[in-house]
Design brief:
Elements: H1 2-27, H2 30-40, H3 47-56, H4 63-71, E1 78-80, E2 86-88, E3 113-114, E4 119-120, H5 121-156, H6 161-175, H7 178-189, H8 212-242, H9 245-252, H10 257-269, H11 271-294, H12 300-309, H13 313-341
Antiparallel strand pairs: 1-2, 3-4
Helix pairs in contact: 1-13, 2-3, 5-6, 5-8, 5-11, 6-8, 7-8, 7-11, 8-10, 8-11, 9-10, 11-12, 11-13, 12-13
Amino acid sequence: MFLFLTKRIGLMALTSLCLTFVVFFLTNLQPNLEKLAKTQANNRMTDDQVVSWLARNGYDRNLFFRYGEWLGVVPGWQSTADDGKVIGKCAYLKRDFGHVPNYCGLLQGKLGYTSLFQGKVEEIIGKRLLLTGKLMFWVMLVMVPSALLVGVIAGMREGTRTDRSLSTLSIITTATPEYVSGVVFIVIFSSSAVGLKWLNGSATTAMDGITFNNFTLPVMTMALYGMGYIARMTRASMAEVMTAQYIRTARLKGVTFKNIVLKHALRNALIAPFTVIMLQFPWLLTGVVIVETLFNYKGFGWTLVQAAGNNDIELLLSCSIAAVLVVLITQLISDIGYVYLNPKIRVN
């Protein structure tokens, strides 16, 4: 297991390096840099002024060199302005005694300065991820038990009217994207147009305090979309397990149906759904882009949209590395959990 974890962590690091370089390359294309210069300085800048601004702010250097700066393995650029003030990549970390560190990248826990929110990127990302983490927690708390319950009931009653009804409901929820179900829920539950104004159509107040009124709609929107896929996978796995030879043997021995399901069938039936459940975390992190924008909940997804729309390169890069790490870590946990759930699997 130790060798397996070492190899996987090394592969995760290599994958993160490749993916972040791709994002770094795309966000640092010349049109994006020109847009950044005009956004930061003046929209009416000439081409020569744009080139001069990019040179003064360290964007005229080699792409690999600047990627090394962002990683923190290459010293950040520095220069002195006309007024004697030190400017550079690490200048936003300037301390009271005037020292500017040479390295200020990902390895040092410094992700740069966001011009959009006027602050350190790592602080903004940490705050927004915490808000999104709360949303993901409540979504998983509602989605997973509900999906497993629906899937187990449908799998135990394979071919019956109950199975067909629950399977149809699961397909409908999975086939309805969040931007459709979210709008429908807002119209029904938070609009006076139909006379059912029970819940808030905006989740902005949930940033200060979560209540039933301001958090139900975004949680319900995301939970319903993901619930159908997990339920269908659980139903298929449960139906397969219930026809296994050891289940038939247990029935012949007179074991009660309840004990057959809980002690024999359920654990084996959860092997495949467990992997699917772990894959919901990356989906939730990217799926919140739509839901948080729709309900004006200013978490990670909302921040990602703002960073992309305002060409905030430093913030956009940090959002990408956060998403990559969540995907890789959840996949690692999924592989480890799969080994413990299925004794037949051994890590060589």
